[in-house]
Design a protein that fits this description.
Blueprint (H helix, E strand, L loop, with lengths): L3 H5 L3 E7 L2 E8 L7 E5 L9 H12 L3 E5 L4 H10 L6 H15 L10 E6 L1 H12 L4 E7 L17 E6 L3 H13 L4 E6 L11 H17 L14
Parallel strand pairs: 3-4, 3-5, 5-6, 6-7, 7-8
Antiparallel strand pairs: 1-2, 2-4
Length: 235
């Protein structure tokens, strides 16, 4: 039976099998979607993060599909709350994000859509590693308060245009993002949001993140009017 959300573009729960485990996600594909953005959350967060959900809602308002997903299982999340080591296993997170990309690009409602990644904190490193591993479908990456430096050598292999967004008061992370910017060979840009701290909790700062992300994804995921999207194999 078809999930009502699949017909209306409303968000609906999905389960994604990956290497013997199942990841939970929330997928929304508006009619006439211009691309799809997968969210890789950061340290100690989940697909229910109010910040990521606010950005996802802004993207959907501009005709972009979204997939918010948990890259750790519920059992792994419980372990990570005690040890805090899985959230920094960016290779594991990247492998699962890449597998989720394969899954979503095989679905009938999304397989024609170019993919973007929105990564926060350590999820930004996972997004960049996965983008390097999936250069055909992944056409843009945005990092919010991220640790792109943790992607290491994978940065040089990223082809997707990459936008790094950092809070102006998050000085340590600004320096780490500048290091990553120097290592990226793709189109890239660093945007510093004045007055924002790491979580962008100050008035108007998260809205600025959403605006910057929306403009970046629309520019790089949506084909120009009157042009057809090339199959991934031709990119």
């Amino acid at each position: 039976m078809t999930n009502p959300g699949e017909r209306t573009g409303r968000e609906h729960a999905v389960r994604i099998p990956v290497d013997g485990i199942t990841l939970d996600g929330d997928l929304a594909v508006p009619d006439g979607a211009r691309g799809i953005v997968l969210f890789a959350h950061g340290s100690g967060s989940s697909r229910f993060s109010p910040r990521n959900r606010a950005v996802a809602a802004a993207l959907r308002a501009d005709g972009l599909a979204t997939l918010l997903l948990d890259l750790l299982t519920a059992d792994e999340e419980r372990v990570d709350q005690a040890t805090r080591h899985l959230r920094f296993d960016v290779a594991l997170l990247a492998a699962r994000l890449a597998a989720a990309t394969d899954w979503v690009t095989q679905r009938s409602e999304a397989r024609h859509l170019a993919v973007g990644y929105f990564g926060a904190s350590t999820g930004a490193a996972a997004a960049l590693i996965a983008a390097a591993e999936r250069p055909a479908p992944v056409r843009a990456v945005v990092s919010r308060g991220g640790r792109p430096d943790l992607a290491g050598a994978a940065l040089a292999a990223v082809r997707a245009p990459t936008l790094l967004i950092v809070g102006g008061a998050d000085t340590v992370v600004i320096d780490l993002n500048r290091q990553a910017l120097a290592a990226l060979h793709s189109e890239c840009r660093l945007e510093i949001v004045p007055g924002a701290t790491h979580l962008f909790e100050e008035p108007g700062t998260l809205e600025e993140v959403a605006r910057l992300a929306r403009e970046w994804f629309v520019r790089h995921l949506a084909p120009a009017p009157g042009t057809a999207r090339k199959p991934f194999a031709e990119w």
